[in-house]
Design brief:
This protein is an alpha/beta fold and 251 residues long. It is 32% helix and 21% strand. The structure holds S-adenosylmethionine (SAM).
Length: 251
């Protein structure tokens, strides 16, 4: 079952590898660059980057860091390899499925993601694996797009998802809620465009008790509008507009 899921995911993203750089064209890169630079400026210690894709984000990494980038798609990694080799620091790239990481427990100080958990088939499973390989108290820092709780964005994103997911990401994930369901403490959510593009800081709890993860973990594709649970570690509803760190649309 897991092998079938991995093979399907690999095939889908292998096909997407030749167009990813074009789709993430210069305009999009320029727009999100300040937020990515800010996110990656916190890099420290032993770092895992999930999923590195063609390596477009490597240009935003501060120099001199110790980074392992993984991705399930060998074609993505083929494109990422020269960018990783040119990085002014220690960077390896490896083919790996985030649902079945081959690292020991508590290997990394930090894990970074960038437009990753729109694409991973079972986000809560993948996030639990990330939690396993993070040291207790280690940081998960994410740049992600999700669904929205606002009309008409929620309607559009929900309607487009079944079509777009055939060759690309889901557009209506509830990633903040999934992070909490995987047992992380969500510390900060900053909205970068509406409530759709956001940066997330979460911390692996000091206790490793798997019972901390919510039993509702399978429900991972709800629209953001349906998000109602409180996010541990904040006063906020999951992905809700009342997040205290919203920035103005377009900001
Ligand atoms: C939308 S792309 C983003 C790539 C890159 N982070 C970027 O922003 O340019 C999503 C990436 O997730 C990877 N991916 C999807 N499912 C995965 C999994 N189960 N394990 C590891 N990587 C996965 C895909 O191969 C693809 O490279």
């Amino acid at each position: 079952m897991d092998d079938v899921r991995a093979a399907r995911t690999r095939a889908k993203w292998d096909k997407a590898a030749s167009t990813l750089d074009f789709l993430s064209s210069r305009g999009a890169e320029r727009r999100w660059a300040p937020y990515k630079e800010d996110l990656f400026s916190a890099m420290d210690g032993r770092i895992l980057f999930v999923a590195v894709g063609t390596g477009l984000d490597i240009q935003f990494f501060p120099p001199g860091k110790d980074i392992c980038g993984i991705d399930i798609s060998p074609r993505m990694l083929g494109r990422a390899a020269p960018r990783a080799a040119a990085y002014d620091g220690d960077m390896a790239v490896k083919e790996m499925d985030v649902h079945a990481l081959t690292f020991d427990d508590h290997t990394f100080d930090q894990v970074y993601t960038s437009c990753t958990f729109c694409s991973v088939p079972d986000p809560v499973d993948g996030l639990r694996e990330i939690r396993r390989v993070l040291k207790p108290g280690g940081q998960l820092r994410m740049f992600e797009h999700t669904g929205s709780r606002y009309f008409p964005f929620n309607l559009v994103l929900n309607m487009m998802t079944p079509l777009v997911r055939r060759f690309g990401p889901d557009l209506n994930r509830t990633t903040v809620r999934n992070v909490a369901r995987a047992g992380f403490d969500v510390v900060e959510v900053q909205h970068r465009y509406l409530d759709v593009v956001k940066t997330i800081l979460a911390v692996a709890p000091l206790s490793d008790d798997p019972a901390e993860a919510s039993p509702e973990a399978e429900d991972t594709n709800d629209v953001e509008a349906g998000a109602s649970g409180d996010v541990p570690g904040t006063d906020e509803s999951a992905d809700g507009p009342e997040d205290q760190h919203d920035v103005a649309p377009g900001g």
